[in-house]
């Protein structure tokens, strides 16, 4: 009974006209029309959205907003405790052994990249280790589907019953509505970038596996990042971020264009790595893994 009252209050508070609720038949028409209005070919858009595996699921946005709500309500002391120095999982012997093995196996390629972009082999391997465990964990859901579902969920009424919060104060409801709309707009921009990147590189967008929030490839670039920083490392005329050469060259391209130099101080290196993933724990983890790999390399080679 209380859940029904909470949802009813949301309808009154947020406004209910024109919304499609989770569980109702859903049409992608509004999203498709928006893409066409922004310059995409109608036939291309219709074809992409016609795949049978593309089903609307508001749980995509619910999952993201549930995380953000949890952080919003988290006590300050717990937030401080969560900000550890670095993620120790990646500096254990097994992870470092895997990273060092990868560095040895691909050292010639990594040196070539270092010569062109000025990014040390250990840094690229550290990024690859943390992002996808050296390319072995790529996400198990289509990036396109994840982004399309988030872009099509600009209002919390579509997923409020999935949040797990039966009672929210008015200020939290206001925050939830604004934050959801902002995240949906972000997802739309990334969806547009994914379509553009796919079209330019002859990729079927709906078949790209990705993270829950749309990052893809062994380097885990967001689509907008791929548009601006990805490069054709193997010079075959297209960019494939599931290709080792393209992904590694693209990671180096990203770092260099954000100011990376191997001679930078630790503080400045952390600032550049932070641009790859906006978390200082993440940045410090990459730095520490890279440092450990460099120590191993200097002891056991290659030179």
UniProtKB/TrEMBL annotation:
Residues 26-263 form the Transglycosylase SLT domain. This is Membrane-bound lytic murein transglycosylase B-like protein. It comes from the Bacteria. Keywords: Signal. CDD domains: Slt35-like. GO terms for biological process: peptidoglycan catabolic process. The lineage of its organism: Bacteria, Pseudomonadati, Thermodesulfobacteriota, Desulfovibrionia, Desulfovibrionales. Residues 1-22 form the signal peptide. InterPro entries: Lysozyme-like_dom_sf, MltB-like, SLT_2. GO terms for molecular function: peptidoglycan lytic transglycosylase activity.
